[in-house]
């Protein structure tokens, strides 16, 4: 069974919804893995080659774009580099952020190759806008308080640094739930135990760009998958 859900397809593009836990393509960090979104996208493309235009981290679910030919991939890659592609993510975070804001915080590059971990990497500018959609407070003492606060936010990255959204939310002390590297372990464990599995509460929900062939405005969106929606049940009683 193909785990990708087809969202859009034409002569140049193939857009899918990727579930959490699936790598986009082979990575030196996960050499043992044998299943990738790339191979499943090829299956949706009648077995023909596809070109990943961007990436989603393995634990992140959501909208993922492939080009069906090399020229479309080149044009979309250029649009990505020049900031002409707009992306929207949804995330559940610890605490109550402001109603909206901008995180303008440079990030040091994170190399894929573990052999470069000790080599100092350059620092790049990084900007993320955010908007708070909902807040909740649950009567559970996870840290030092009798209750615990969480928020549902929309994130709009203006740059594309590795793990940018996860690192930026940690920077403003509102880490994303389920983030093993940048989050808070007690909160991650609480939700993993409560819902029977742990996942990164980050989903790519919308992407907008100019069609590489026609220039027409393309906007594709998808609601987060069921494992994400299940955790959001804590927002049914909002404060």
Automatic annotation (TrEMBL):
Domain Pseudouridine synthase RsuA/RluA-like intervals: 13-171
InterPro entries: PsdUridine_synth_cat_dom_sf, PsdUridine_synth_RluA-like_CS, PsdUridine_synth_RsuA/RluA, RluA_PseudoU_synthase
Catalytic activity: uridine(65) in tRNA = pseudouridine(65) in tRNA
EC number(s) from the headed UniProt entry: 5.4.99.26
Function of the protein: Responsible for synthesis of pseudouridine from uracil-65 in transfer RNAs.
Keywords linked to the UniProt accession: Isomerase, tRNA processing
Protein name: tRNA pseudouridine synthase C
Presence of keyword Nuclease: no
Enzyme class, broadest EC rank: isomerase
Keyword presence, Oxidoreductase: no
Organism: Marinobacter albus
